[in-house]
Amino acid sequence: MRVVVIGAGVGGLTAAALLAKAGLEVTVLEHHTYPGGSAGTFWHQGFRFDAGATLLAGFGEDGIFTRLERQLGACFPVRRLPPGEPLMEVWLPGGRVVTRPVGRTYELEAQQAAFGRPVQGFWRWQEKRALALWKIAQGLPFPPANTTELLSLTQRGFSWALEHRADLLGLLADLVRPTLAHAPSHTGFRRFLDAQLLIASQADARHTYALFGAAALDLPHRGSVMPQGGMGAVAETLAQAVVRYGGRVLYRHRVDKLRIRNGRLVAVEVVLGGRRRGEREVLEADLFIANLTPGDLTALIPGAAKQAPPRDGWGAFVLHAAIPASAVPPGAYYRQWAGEGDWVFLSLSDPGDTLRGSPDIRVLSASVHTQLADWQGLSKEVYQAQKMAWQERVVRQVERLIPGFRESAALILGATPRTYQFYTWRQDGWVGGYPQVHPLRTPSPRTPFSNLWRVGETIFPGQSVPAVAMSGERVAALVLGLTAQRKAARLSSTRP
Hints:
The chain is of the alpha/beta class. It folds into 3 domains: 2-42 and 57-78 and 229-307 and 432-493, FAD/NAD(P)-binding domain (3-Layer(bba) Sandwich); 106-222, no CATH class; 314-426, no CATH class. Helix content is 36%, strand content 21%. The chain is built from 14 helices and 19 strands. Strands 7-6-15-16-17-14-18 form a 7-stranded mixed β-sheet, with helices on both faces. A hairpin with a 2-residue loop joins strand 10 and strand 11 (264-272). Helix 4 (120-137) crosses helix 8. The longest helix has 30 residues, at 465-494.
């Protein structure tokens, strides 16, 4: 059975690796020169920069990447963070700095020290909801993509509801009420929640529905790690697994068009780059997986109506920089400015990670939300002027987190939504997935074609690197289920 995967993001590569191990003939097509997409890592002037400022988790005992290591015989190059180690620092108005250490007990102590006893109830609610969700979240087939997933969802949902029947009404209510409904009326704490949820769910505490908010706030405690060599090490490890099990990962291969016949996808048309720039190929397959947003997928279908990103979808302005390690104040690996001006989320390389540069240098990525519409329809001159203005804005905010940053930085690069559109081939540079304002916002992997599925942060589950990998795990199971059905049907038809 031949499978073509469009896009070498973490979701597509997870599905590809699992399917290759299962014995399917897998080919991954990636238009760029390295894997990972928005969670990739690129070289520039001797430094390895993450495409975005992203926290990596999912390495707990029951985490997705722990499962993948067992299933694929892979070893992700990460340093696991012990309980109590400071993971993140959040700067609030008035100079207050709130630390988020690894481990719920340690975090509760830090939260009470920062905001007082009133927040104790919120974090108890958050832990209770998160633990309940993790029991069902692994591979949760929601919304169901077929009757098999519907049956699985019904069975799992029923047993889960029985287990949590004493609190079922509260759980159901948290599907529709906002995270803010559980927060005390503490201005600083509410701003802290807004800052954290904006990077985890693309919406603030007033709009993020409570069940998702509880899970998003729990991410730092789900096996947090520091990736050695950058975030792209995850995608690189998965790509190596694809090849190890007999699959192919072809770079500089951009899918330009889908070929449809009798309501099924039969082949993809590919435009090549590099030394074969401009040449075209056609790859046929039985099954297809698209690591694409809905709009990017419909753009490949002849005659399909153009589908734009959601109006509330976000773009990102990202500042990449290399700075002497001696110029970085002691503190957490992730730092967020939520004071006046632009809110910035900053990730620093692990000290001594020589895979990202020389031992005396640390590299960072600092990300700011920006409206997609603000970057559309600009002339070259206006675009360059706006890019430099935004770069200056973000540099000023990073200065608040790292005093003297401007003077000490060895290299500073700015990236806009147009940059993301060019390098990751995402429509308008939309990143982060759908803002999680209600549980039906994110669709299933289904497409109009029975042999084509989508993976990534724009299906459920999504919204983080671990969740994107879980989407790939889910789609691999759907594909294997379909191949098993076809095999059984063939055997049945050959019996006398």
